[in-house]
């Protein structure tokens, strides 16, 4: 079999963690995918994958080979596009990740627009409320909220969001409005279990101490802890208490008056929103066109800018 074809099949199996899923992605039959992997392992005389009844995982040697395969296949795609021209129509499979609510509210409409514009593309969208390593987990690009660590990823800033406290008018009428972060100790608090600082809420210094620059943390004792941001938002809307959320997550509720912002003067600086990807300036047409489309949509959204 053609070496490039075998590499492409191997990438699909490793990223999908299964032969059947890879077959669907490649529009091949499962037996053909199995034969391709067997041929590749025979050719290399090494074991690339470990198989169980439920999962397929890359071996240590397979992980190194996977990284090389991605670079080679990407280089071939770029060479083909260079020969065809910079305006080549996007084709092929694109894997995208974003935070759950952000993905549902902002990224999914862009994906649908992208797929309608470019009929020869396919997209896998994985929405997760954790930091995703694009290279290790096989994603082409992702949306990241917050400051970016130093890395070899390419990034484009497309907006900014705020971390804020909110509660319903019903709750505030009953309990009063907190004036300082320390007042929160006498309120019902709602926390999410995602993130390492779930029960340590951080604030900017008090406005009456202008020389104090360091942010400070308040260790909270939530009455309700949930595993999803939407769960916390729903509880706050129902008048249970105060939740800490990101501004984009409750844009509709703020506009309708269902939720009110609290302690705005103690908010941390706004957090940037980036589109990140692992290809360089010669990004493939499928990646480049998606980034351009999504960046335009996000920069025009008032809730992000």
Can you give a write-up of this model?
With 305 residues, the protein is α/β, with parallel strands linked by helices. The chain has helices at residues 3-16, 19-26, 30-44, 60-84, 100-117, 134-137, 169-175, 229-237, 251-256, 285-299, and strands at residues 49-51, 56-58, 92-98, 121-127, 141-145, 154-161, 163-167, 189-192, 200-203, 216-219, 224-226, 242-246, 260-262, 271-277. Strands 4-3-5-14-6 form a five-stranded mixed beta sheet, with helices on one face. Helix 1 (3-16) crosses helix 2 (19-26) and helix 2 (19-26) crosses helix 3 (30-44). The termini are far apart.
In the CATH hierarchy, what is the superfamily of the largest domain? Periplasmic binding protein-like II
> Structural class per helix/strand content?
alpha/beta
> What is the helix fraction of residues, given as a range?
25-40%
Strand order of the largest sheet: 4-3-5-14-6
**Span of the ends, CA to CA:** 51 Å
Shape: elongated
Count of individual beta strands: 14
Question: Stretches where pLDDT falls below 50 for ≥5 residues?
Answer: none
Total domains, how many?
Answer: 3
Number of helices: 10
CATH architecture type of the largest domain: 3-Layer(aba) Sandwich
Order of SSEs: HHHEEHEHEHEEEHEEEEHEHEEH
Keywords summarizing the entry:
elongated; alpha/beta; five-stranded mixed β-sheet; 305 residues; 14 strands; D-Maltodextrin-Binding Protein, domain 2; 22% strand; Arc Repressor Mutant, subunit A
